[in-house]
Structures are given as structure tokens and as C-alpha cells.
Amino acid sequence: MTARPEGVPSEKLPVGGAMRVMGSETEYGIHAPSAPGANATMMSARIIQAYASVTRQRAAGGAETRWDYTDEEPLHDARGWTLERASADPSQLTDQPPVLDAEAVALAYGRQELEADGADESGSLLMNMVLGNGARLYVDHAHPEYSSPEVTTPRDVVAWDAAGDLVALATVRRVAADPDLPAINLYKNNTDNKSVSYGSHENYLMPRSVPFGDIIRGLTPFFVSRQVVCGAGRVGLGQDSSTPGYQISQRADFFEAEVGLETTIRRPIINTRDEPHATADKYRRLHVIIGDANLSQVSNYLKFGTTAMVLSLIEAGQAPKIEVHEPVQALQTVSHDTSLTATVRLLDGRRVTALDIQWMYYEAAAKLAQESGVSDTFTGDGHTREVLERWEATLTALGGDLGAAASSVEWLAKMSLLDGYRNRDGLAWNDARLGLVDLQWSDIRPEKGLYYRLLSRDRMQRIVDDGAISRAVLEPPSDTRAYFRGKCVSSFGKDVVGASWDSVIFDVPGMGKLQRVPTREPLRGTEFLTGPLFRRHSDAASFLAELLGQNTAPPRA
Amino acid sequence: MAAQEQQQPQSRETESEVDVPEAPPAAPEAQASAATQGVDDLLDEIDGVLESNAEEFVRAFVQKGGQ
After folding, report:
1. Family assignment (chain B) (predicted)?
2. What is the pLDDT of residues A413-439, one digit of tens each?
3. Last residue of a domain, which of A423, A448, A469?
């Protein structure tokens, strides 16, 4: 690239604050109340299929694309080795398309129906889509999963993550409108309260030069404590909820290790999966598996915003120098104490609360942001200041009037509803109605989901407005490679045969072989860099010809 | 340093009609209220929204493992 004029986006983000290439993943709980025995993988495929029919209707030519598995490396460990396939748990082999067993399909829905409409032209069920907003929608194990496009700000994470909930809602509506299918409910939660958990993951791009040991040391105390800000709340203690009560986090009781490669068994606080989905010698994609799925926009905003800032602290070598004694136990101790007074032991002998730890990180992050200029009101990056302000306000409320945080902190919002029922009807914590409130809190239908009932009464704060979320269902973020991916799908869908985080593959009639366009730099492929190209070409052949620098481009229109 | 901020990713004017449902409408400018007032009113509304037969509904919500 040549030198840029003033005001042109650079390919580097401001460092030291809350801006970073990042994205969310949500595995939805899935349930058909009228067909409780239905096969979960089959139902999840139905959900993907439903969205395919929604998008087919939206865009003639089909705004859907298959996933390209070439660069998936789920067994690469960030600590520097690769797990042998033979010793991996089958659930770790995420680099192969899941195969729907025909027997399972027949068991769930009957052979006839499968033959009638359950399969696409190639005879297999659609398990995987790339969406026009740059996201991925697919079947992960036994759940439908939405992986948001890459964004650069905490505000955009909230918008494109919530867009996934609208995508999920569209699928639920589509299935419900089909008289031949049992209605399917989707829940944005993380456990069935019967010892099974499923994830909500975060991804953060980091320079590969940061030693992984620094990441482990810098993040562990933060992850033990951040649930007080972004926990989604859970009725029941223990993996199987056998002990009555209420706790801060959906996920805490399912974590059993400090560091590891697994995501489905022996879950670790720090996950070492090392699939950069980008230029591998420059970047690391930190895969965070410890978070709760958030409906509360403020909790979601702070989950990403504060974690991004802590990664900036680690990169700058300025993370608080503390170590938590037995962090897995500490994680659960914090989760089980809704009074926020429980203390955990640091290796230096001090006993501190989760709020104390959060304040240590806040102070360090505020100092670094000020030193690097990103939190300045006028010359800052436009995001870090707001994250710091909301973080400080939330910690202050959590240290005093918990009720004041109930419109922003998800576990407190849910708890206020549960307390309302307990007070009005004298319910014990093991009463099934409280379990139902917990479950139905996360129903993604606005008329049934209790979070949405509170939102409609303005009892929950918003970070982004509904219009921005609706736009994010259709439009990719403008400032990452997700723009290129999404626009390729929505503009040239019928000629795109595959896509992944770091590639788009075209099969253009007359071009002979497949054209694979690598997108290994997350901050390239932006609207600034490629928008004019999309606007100049209405067909994939001439678009590719100019993009690939061939001289066969037809005259511009 | 703040060059990126000149782009407003959410200000595009793309409009297309789709059947993706909108989220429930926001009351403009209204501040979310943390006050407990209206709790009874809220619970009455939620009584009408909750699935019937809580015990059976909660028991039937069984998931297979995930990440």
C-alpha cells in the first residue's frame, strides 16, 4: 500500500485500550417441547436449514455458503505442541464437517420426510452457512451455533452478537410456521441444569510475540473475578444443580482445570487452542471459553471491553502482579456468593474479594489507557473511555447498592426477578417455577423470553439500539475482513462455494478452476479497501478479475 | 490514532425487507429503571408468559454436551 492521506483508516488499531479484533460464539440450547426425544443434532440442522430458506427468500441466488475447513487446527496447542488425533476426544475434532448419521435422522423424523425435503441437492443436510453479515451459522455437536463476524470495538461485539439472537429468532419462527415440524425453542444459556454445559466463547486477536505464560498469569485472576460483572446467573449449585440456591455464573461449576486444550471435557479456565485463522507467525487468536452467554447488553459490553483491556495490559507488561491460590476452587467460591463478600487467597497471603481483584485490574487498565492516550475524551480511540466509565460505575454499584446494578448486570437482573417470585409466593430455591424462570430468561423469543420482557419495560439498559442490531443481521462490520466475506456472500452468493474466517472460494462459470481468495489479515478486506470494488462489479467474474489483478477485466460500467 | 473513528459502521443506510423479526421496540430516551416499583405488575405479566407445568417443562429440557 502507498502512503495514506489524512483520515484514512489504518491497518492497525490504537493499542493500550479496548479496541481489538474480536468476536463471539454462541451455542444455543435447543428444545422441542412437543417432541422431547427428538435428536438434537437433527433439530440443529433443521435450524440451519430454516435460516437457509429465510436467506434464499431474501436474496435470489441464495445468500448462503458452505464452510471451508482447510485452515481448522483444533489440536494445535498454544503451548507449542499438537495433540495426536488418536488421543483426542471425538468432540475436539472440529476440523471435519459433522456427518449426520442417516439412522439418527430416520429415528428423529422418519425416512420419508428426509427423502422429501430434509436434504439439499447434494443429498446431505446443510450443517454450515456463512452469512451475509460475515458470521458463521452451523451445527456444533448437538447445538446450533452462531459465530459473529470479526469486529474491532466492544459496542460492535454487542450489536453483532445480538444480531445472532435475531438470526436464531428468525429460524425459530420459520420452523414454527411449518405445520409438519415440531416447534423448536432456542435458549441463550449455558446449561440444562442436569450436568450438561455448552459454551459461549470469545475470541481476541493478539500478537504472537506475547508469551503464553504471561497470558495465563495475567488472565487467570481476572477470569476468576469478572463474573461479578458479566455472569448470567444460575438457579442451583453443582453441575447437576443438586444443591438448592442461586449463583452468579452459568459456567463456573463446569470448570475443572487451570490450563488446557479441551473445551468439552476437563474444561480449563485458560484454553490453549491455537488456531489463529490468520497469519500464524504474526497473530494468536485467544480462545476464551469461560464466559456466560449474555443477553444483558451491558454485561456483554463489559465482558468484551474489559477483557480486551486486560489483554492490552498483558501486552504492555502491566497486568497486576497477583496470583490466586487454587483458581478453580476460587472461581466457584466467587460464583456461589451473591453477597460479593467471599474472599479468595492470593499467593502473597492476602485475602481479597472478587471486587477487590476487579478494582486492581480497573486501576491498572485506566493507568495504561491514560499513558497511551486512548482514553482521552478528544483524542482517544472513542471507545476505551466509555468502557472505563461503565466498568467503574458497575464496580461502584456492586460494592454498594446492588439494586442499582440490576438494570445492567445480568445475574442481578435475573436475581431480582427470582427474588420477586420468592417473596410473593414463598418459593424455595428448588421450586420448579424458579428453575423455569431461570430457563425462560434466555428464550430468544421476545414474547416468551423474560430478559426481553424486562427490556421492553426499560428495566434493562441498552448499549446499542434495536435498529443497529437489525442492520447487523444483514450487514457485515465495515472495518474488518468480515466486510469482504459478507459482501462476497451477499453480492456473489451463487458463485461462492465456500468460505471460512480466512478465505473465500469462488467457482465462477468459465474460469475453469476454483478461485480461493485468502483473507489472512483481519484488518484488510475492509469497506475502505474493497467497497469500491464491490460497487464497480455486479458479476463475480469481473470482480475476481480486478481483485486478482488480471488484465481480462471487462470495461467498467 | 483515532482515524478509525471517522467511520461509523452503523450509519449505513442499507434497507431491505426481510422476514427477520425486529427486536421489541424501545421506548425512546427512557432510562432503564432499577427501582423495584412495579414488581408486582411485572410478576403478573410474567405469570402469563411462563410455560405451563413448570416441573415437567424444566425436567424435559435435557441437552447434549457442548463446548
Report:
1. Belongs to the prokaryotic ubiquitin-like protein family.
2. 999 999 999 999 999 999 999 999 999
3. A469
